Structure prediction request, 462 residues.
Amino acid sequence: MSGSLKGLDIVSIRDFSRDQIEHILKVAEGMVPVAKGEEKSNLLEGRVLGSLFYEPSTRTRLSFEAAMTRLGGRTLGFDEPKGSSVAKGETLADTIRMVDAYSDVIVLRHPQEGAARLAGHFAEKPVINAGDGAGQHPTQTLLDLFTIMKEKGGIEGNHVVIVGDLKYGRTVHSLSEALGMFGAKLTFVAPPTLQMPKEHVKHIESMGMRPTISSSLDDVIEEADVLYVTRIQKERFPDPAEYQKVAGAYTINSAILRDAADDLIIMHPLPRVNEISSDVDQTKHARYFEQAFNGVPVRMALLSMVLGGIE
Amino acid sequence: MKEFKVTPIRNGTVIDHIEMGMALKVLRIIGVRGDVSSTVSVLMHVPSKKNSWKDIVKIEDRELDPKELDKIALISPDATINIIRDYNVAEKFVVEVPERVKGIMSCSNPGCITNKNEPVEPEFVVETKKPPALRCVYCDRMTTDIAENIV
Prediction:
């Protein structure tokens, strides 16, 4: 992928160069006043977003809708397939062909990996992947990068500690690869059974980075600039006692932050269950709600760029 | 007197230098089953000059199409194809692992959209040729156990 994003599908973060990502983040920065409602924009007036959510989503779906609305566009679609033809057995390909005719850009979340790539084959309009099973979630990665860039003034050289379920968590795979591309120092903290899959570590190493693998948060918290926390899912553990032990070891609370750097920021893709205790919300470190807001300007930037409203 | 374990064939195909132990998989992927109308000979664990052991398959009265050759290349990239016409080797070549593969293999990821009744042929980019490793164009999953996923 090179040059303008007009008309292109946004399926995987691997499709982007570092220059392109930096450009998207710059456009997103310019969108912040509109995203906050401080300024008005009619950039996408008369444009229609087809929003197809085959799986539940709060932040991703609402922030895409907010992004389209803030830019003067409209959204149609569904947030569960129950009431649509999908429930009658319609293929994704057919649903996409139909929505392609009704809208100017399609946002898709689907439980099957590769769904967005398939949608891109059948749609003439650009398709934006809003998460496909355990696969890719590129707009989450972009808003995570935007948050780090905004809060730390840049990405390169920052020590990002990623903790939680690194094996199955889809956001951390593409995020860690993108951070590697930007030259961030990476440490992966997880119990051995939930560590980062080797293929992702290899991919990061191919970019000249050497991620550190650890199972202890205490050992690395002092040196972290960014602590990225993800949920450890109970269903991954056959034994509930084992889950409690592991989940407890990676819970972020004020006590564990005692030795943290003053300017450490804590991020989380949300929803959280109990990975971050509520006493952390009031600390200077918490950035997860700002992070959730950042989904709006980043998605505004992407919608504007694929629709040709902005180069 | 010269002793033949398997006699020469008049017309057909000899697939030589099949990776040891893969002969039966080769038969399966090119659709040779019990209802085949011509003679099929299978030699397994034959001494080889190239590698220490190999398998050989001889199929009478049949020549393989390009898709079948691609399938053989993916499970045994050093195999050679000898096309026999009237007892002579009319053509001889080594199979070639293609750059991209479409419609001959399913994705090993059960969660991949191509395994869900959608109107698409699974498609792969060949990332490494020896041994073959294929990346699904749709879900990005790498498949290395090719024989199990060839359709």
